[in-house]
Amino acid sequence: NNAAVKAILATGARIQLGGGIRTMAHIETWLEAGVERVILGTAALRDPQLVIDGARHFPGKIAVGADATGGMIAAEGWLDVSDVKATDLVRRFEDCGVAAVIFTDIGRDGALSGVNAQATAEIARAVSIPVIASGGVADETDISACLAERDSGIAGVITGRAIYDGRLDLAKAIAMAK
Questions:
Q1: If you ran DSSP here, which 8-state letter would residue 35 be given?
Q2: Which of these, 17, 90, 104, 137, could form a disulfide with 142 (CB 3.0-4.6 Å)?
Q3: DSSP 26
Q4: How far is 66 from 99, CA to CA, in rounded Å?
Q5: CA nearest neighbour of 122 among 86, 92, 147
């Protein structure tokens, strides 16, 4: 999706990008193109040294994508469910300078079934890295659920479809988070 990403970057929007980034050259290319942060998911599972090296070489620019089902990490576009627990994966990167962990409960992603605030909080408590909740946000109730867990270390929430469908008022959600 290079052309689409470059078109979005041309708008001046600040973006983070994940999906298919598996080498230091890919990381560097996207950061030089203007991506603010690169998310490494499958690479975090299959090539943890890439995450470590990337985080050290590009401070504040590398996030770990912890996409899971039933608490187990899924990779390769969510087609391959591993035997690695999400909490175990994120702990591998505790001290290497990773900017954030994005935890997605893939069973909820795009389904508007409610964010898994409890699982996100569990991961946030396991590490000192900021953890961002993703997957399933349906409305302001999900923002409230994450805010209720704020002491756990949940640092943010990603939402998409709920905004497009008009179920979540973005301005209201931002105001709630402040």
A1: -
A2: 137
A3: H
A4: 13
A5: 86
Instruction: Report the distance separating Cα 69 and Cα 19, nearest Å.
Output: 18
CA distance 18 to 35: 10
Sign of the torsion angle spanned by Cα atoms 25, 97, 60, 176: positive
**Dihedral angle at the C-alpha atoms of 67, 169, 34, 93, nearest 10 degrees?**
-30
Between the alpha carbon of residue 46 and those of residues 3, 80, 148, 164, 177, the distances in Å are 27, 12, 34, 33, 34
pLDDT in tens, 112-156: 568 899 999 999 999 999 999 998 888 999 999 999 998 898 999
Say what the pTM is.
Answer: 0.90
pLDDT in tens, 26-65: 999 999 999 999 999 999 999 999 999 999 999 999 999 9
Beta-bridge mates of residue 100:
63
